[in-house]
């Protein structure tokens, strides 16, 4: 389970996140939505130990990320911009990650096959398409067979078949009693994937609940989003 409690992070006089609290339960895909600059990336970076908060806590199974001895066994993550060395082969990229977390080598082949990259395992990362790069990032997140996934724009660059595969995979993953936190700008896809939604705007949580409750009274998740954030689409 993911638990965010009274989390605050400031950059000078600006609060990137301002006393936010929400939880992400197991057995559900929880969507994390907000305009650019709303605080999504800051929240995820603090959760994954890449940045420090000024106040509050961000816990994974009751612990800060930095206290997880072999974190990939607990949480797998895919963050925008966290790419591998371009000259490294896909299989080598995953192998060194596996070794750092004491994950058996055979798991590398398993996750490459699972995301559809078994046939290009020895190709350099720089020679992979954008969609293949996203699949490689997802493979890295799955290496430790974690109970928790934290994914930022996982379908970026994927073709329609790949997007449908990710949607089905994440819902099946959650159905096993695992936890999925999914950040995305694709409203239609989020509406088809998420069970619950957390909406953040200007560093504060504006809504959190089941998808059907968030969209009640609105024509779509997109229209609910604009109403909840005061965003008219100028930054999308």
TrEMBL record:
Transmembrane segments: none annotated. It holds the Pfam family ABC_tran. Keywords: ATP-binding, Nucleotide-binding, Transport. GO terms for molecular function: ATP binding. InterPro entries: AAA+_ATPase, ABC_transporter-like_ATP-bd, P-loop_NTPase. The keyword Nucleotide-binding applies. The keyword Kinase does not apply. Residues 2-227 form the ABC transporter domain. PANTHER family: ABC TRANSPORTER, ATP-BINDING PROTEIN. Belongs to the ABC transporter superfamily. This is ABC transporter ATP-binding protein. It comes from Plantactinospora solaniradicis. The lineage of its organism: Bacteria, Bacillati, Actinomycetota, Actinomycetes, Micromonosporales.
């Amino acid at each position: 389970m993911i638990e965010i409690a009274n989390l605050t992070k400031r950059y000078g006089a600006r609060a990137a996140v301002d006393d936010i609290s929400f939880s992400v339960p197991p057995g559900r895909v929880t969507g994390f939505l907000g305009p650019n600059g709303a605080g999504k990336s800051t929240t995820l970076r603090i959760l994954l130990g890449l940045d420090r908060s000024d106040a509050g806590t961000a816990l994974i199974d009751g612990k800060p990320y930095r206290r997880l001895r072999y974190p990939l066994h607990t949480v797998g993550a895919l963050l925008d911009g966290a790419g591998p060395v371009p000259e490294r082969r896909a299989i080598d990229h995953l192998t060194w990650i596996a070794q750092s977390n004491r994950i058996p080598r055979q798991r590398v082949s398993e996750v490459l096959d699972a995301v559809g990259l078994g046939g290009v395992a020895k190709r350099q990362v720089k020679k992979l398409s954008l969609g293949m790069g996203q699949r490689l990032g997802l493979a890295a997140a799955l290496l430790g067979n974690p109970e928790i996934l934290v994914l930022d724009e996982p379908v970026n660059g994927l073709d329609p078949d790949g997007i449908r595969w990710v949607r089905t995979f994440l819902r099946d993953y959650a159905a096993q009693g695992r936890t999925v936190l999914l950040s995305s700008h694709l409203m239609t896809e989020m509406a088809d994937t998420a069970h619950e939604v957390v909406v953040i705007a200007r560093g504060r949580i504006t809504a959190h609940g089941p998808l059907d409750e968030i969209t009640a009274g609105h024509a779509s998740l997109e229209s609910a989003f604009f109403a909840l954030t005061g965003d008219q689409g100028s930054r999308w």
